[in-house]
């Protein structure tokens, strides 16, 4: 009976994790490998298409022409995830796909110019996740404690809820990117290879991991004095990293079958969680002062709070979602990374004005030594219909960044709305976002970007 209960719980938790807001979807594409359901395979496939209108940073050109703005369409994500429960204790997860394909970039390695393998074409699939997991202590109705161990290329990277967020059910159009502070430097698209442990004790959930970061070898610029030193990613003979995230769930208990944290439950759960996490990698960055190279640890800390619950008259099906996180990042002196999602711009060598310190296109100061505070909130509007054709969820987000490398802090915002056709399974999202544009460490302006996203997943 305990085994039957466990199988039912696993199927229920997994279905709920991927069917928020859709009364018709059920467990999705699930194939039983045994009649009793003790062995099964679940297949998830999703696509996020972005249509954008973007103000470019000063000094930008696109495909050889000067550009102050751009409109385009691109594939933000095209993914497939396979989740196999081989037995009540043993699970395999494989996740692959592409990201960030635009009309100028995101193609396979070596694609360029014009033709069948021209710029932006035929992007290469790669693995995002590939791990095995074994449950040492099974979750059972009469026991508070559970423990699973696993290893491989995994997403249990600690730090914050949004660091391990699902890309299927965001409140805003996407993550703010600084929630993945190692992105594509010492990780592989927010993943590292290593070992992890996860589990629960009542309402307390824990996730810890021990990982081998991907090697980095950027050369630091040599400067005459230490106050001018700028740390860059250079790990040498890479040391193992440690990460963890610990969370207390006051009301409903979230599933931890898979690592992906839900962004908005659309009122299907009553959630109030507080969490804290860390990431540490020894000797992961370097500076050079008067010819002397010094190594620095990466130490990242965070604390966050998540709220998602129904509000008002239950017949109206209203819900509120809110999330706030504070990051304290130390990568070494004056460390700074400038990033831009699906950036189609490159530097214009003939531009004579003041260029953006971050670079061309939609680049902005995104990750660095210093502090970041991010808050988002949204409301699922009421409906009087049992199965409305569209549900609407307006939202807003605010970001405050204070990086050591810049003399001025920055504030930016996002505002938009989700239009749910079938919960998160079929939705349209609109969002307008601002970003800071520094032309000097103490001088900044602002640029904007409008995005319309079409999302569908099965």
In CATH terms, the superfamily is Porin
Strand content of the residues, in percent?
over 45%
What is the element string, with H for helices and E for strands? HEEEEEEEEEEEEEEEEEEEEEEEE
Number of domains: 1
User: What does the average pLDDT come to?
Assistant: 93
The structural class is: mainly beta
Protein name: Porin
Characterize the structure shown.
This is Porin. It comes from Flavobacterium arsenatis. Strands 2-5-6-7-8-9-10-13-14-15-16-20-21-22-23-24 form a 16-stranded antiparallel beta barrel. It has a three-stranded antiparallel beta sheet with strand order 4-3-18, with no helix packed on it. Strand 14 (about 270-290) and strand 15 form a beta hairpin. By secondary structure, it is mainly β. The radius of gyration is 23 Å and the shape is globular. The protein contains one helix and 24 strands.
Question: How is this structure best summarized?
Answer:
This is Porin. With about 450 residues, this protein is mainly β. It has one helix and 24 strands.
């Amino acid at each position: 009976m305990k085994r039957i209960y466990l199988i039912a719980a696993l199927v229920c938790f997994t279905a709920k994790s991927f069917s928020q807001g859709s009364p018709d979807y059920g467990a999705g594409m699930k194939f039983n490998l045994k009649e009793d359901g003790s062995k099964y395979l679940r297949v998830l496939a999703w696509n996020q298409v972005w249509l954008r209108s973007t103000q470019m940073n000063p000094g930008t050109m696109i495909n050889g022409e000067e550009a102050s703005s751009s409109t385009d369409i691109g594939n933000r994500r095209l993914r497939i995830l396979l989740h196999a429960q081989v037995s009540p204790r043993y699970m395999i997860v494989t996740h692959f796909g592409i990201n960030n394909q635009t009309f100028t970039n995101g193609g396979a390695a070596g694609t360029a110019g014009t033709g069948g393998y021209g710029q932006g074409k035929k992007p290469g699939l790669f693995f995002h996740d590939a791990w095995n997991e074994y449950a040492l202590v099974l979750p059972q109705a009469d026991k508070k404690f559970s423990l699973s161990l696993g290893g491989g290329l995994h997403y249990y990277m600690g730090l914050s809820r949004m660091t391990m967020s699902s890309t299927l059910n965001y409140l805003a159009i996407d993550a703010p990117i600084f929630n993945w502070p190692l992105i594509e430097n010492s990780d592989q698209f927010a993943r590292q290879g290593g070992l992890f442990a996860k589990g629960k004790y009542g309402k307390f959930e824990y996730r810890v991991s021990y990982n081998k970061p991907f090697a980095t070898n950027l050369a630091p610029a040599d400067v005459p004095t230490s106050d001018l030193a700028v740390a860059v990613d250079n790990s040498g003979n890479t040391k193992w990293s440690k990460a963890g995230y610990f969370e207390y769930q006051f009301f409903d208990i979230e599933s931890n079958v898979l690592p992906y944290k839900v962004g908005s439950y659309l009122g299907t759960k009553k959630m109030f969680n507080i969490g804290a996490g860390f990431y540490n990698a020894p000797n992961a960055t370097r500076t050079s002062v008067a010819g002397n190279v010094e190594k620095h640890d990466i130490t990242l800390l965070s604390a966050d709070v998540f709220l998602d619950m129904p509000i008002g008259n239950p017949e109206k099906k209203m819900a509120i979602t809110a999330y706030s996180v504070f990051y304290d990042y130390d990568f070494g002196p004056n460390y700074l990374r400038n990033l831009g999602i699906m950036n189609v711009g490159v530097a214009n060598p003939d531009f004579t004005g003041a260029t953006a310190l971050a670079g061309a296109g939609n680049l902005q100061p995104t990750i660095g030594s210093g502090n970041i505070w991010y808050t988002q909130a949204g409301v699922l509007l009421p409906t009087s219909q049992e199965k409305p054709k569209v549900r609407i969820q307006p939202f807003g987000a605010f970001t405050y960044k204070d990086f050591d490398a810049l003399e001025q802090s920055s504030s930016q915002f996002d505002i938009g709305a989700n239009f749910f056709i079938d919960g998160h399974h079929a939705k349209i999202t609109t969002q307008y976002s601002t970003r800071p544009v520094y032309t000097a460490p103490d001088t900044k302006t602002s640029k904007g970007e409008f995005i319309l996203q079409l999302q569908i997943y099965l």
